[in-house]
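SAMPLE LOG
Freezer: B-3
Tube label: C17
Construct: single chain, 214 aa
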Amino acid sequence: MNAEMIKITEQFVKSILVDDRTGHDYFHIHRVRNLALHIGKIERSNLFIVEMAALLHDTIDDKIMDDPKGAIKHVTSFLHSNGVKSVDTQHIMDIITSLSFKGGNGVPMKSLEGRVVQDADRLDALGAIGIARAFTYGGIKGHVLYDPDIPLRESMTYEQYRYEQSTTINHFYEKLLRLSDKMNTEEGKKIAQQRHVFIEKYLLQFFEEWNGQL
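STRUCTURE (predicted):
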């Protein structure tokens, strides 16, 4: 039953994210799923819940969904109609509705499975892939590459994080470089630290080139 449900969910998610160009496409989902299963095995979590939540986590995300409330209903109905137990459906929905960074205003994850999937999602925002995704998302949203006259935001409301114009380089400081300190699991922290250092090295090179240093 679980293996078949995973296959059905893969197709469901692909149908929703097929046209995504923001860096939240199915390749992102695939990476998050693999990371989540890796961490989930170490943490001895419920791997069915972990895999389902990892697969579904961006199908209701307001960064890419025009109608997040409608998307939540759609995903809940999908789970119920395919025979997922009510307690598992609730657990999965609790995870994917609480996962987002939301400008640092997100709520702590209640379950081990939620903490595992959140770490996996955050890890894909770090390292080489994280850098590529940041510039992809910034370009789609019309953010400038960098402007020294646009100050960094030390804190921000959810509305500011989601809708206020900033720069992609600012996003590295406002979100990405904060993620390693927000990891939930020991394995997540270990992987995050390696990817965090990679971003720091990239930014050093970026500013050397920005300032015309040879």
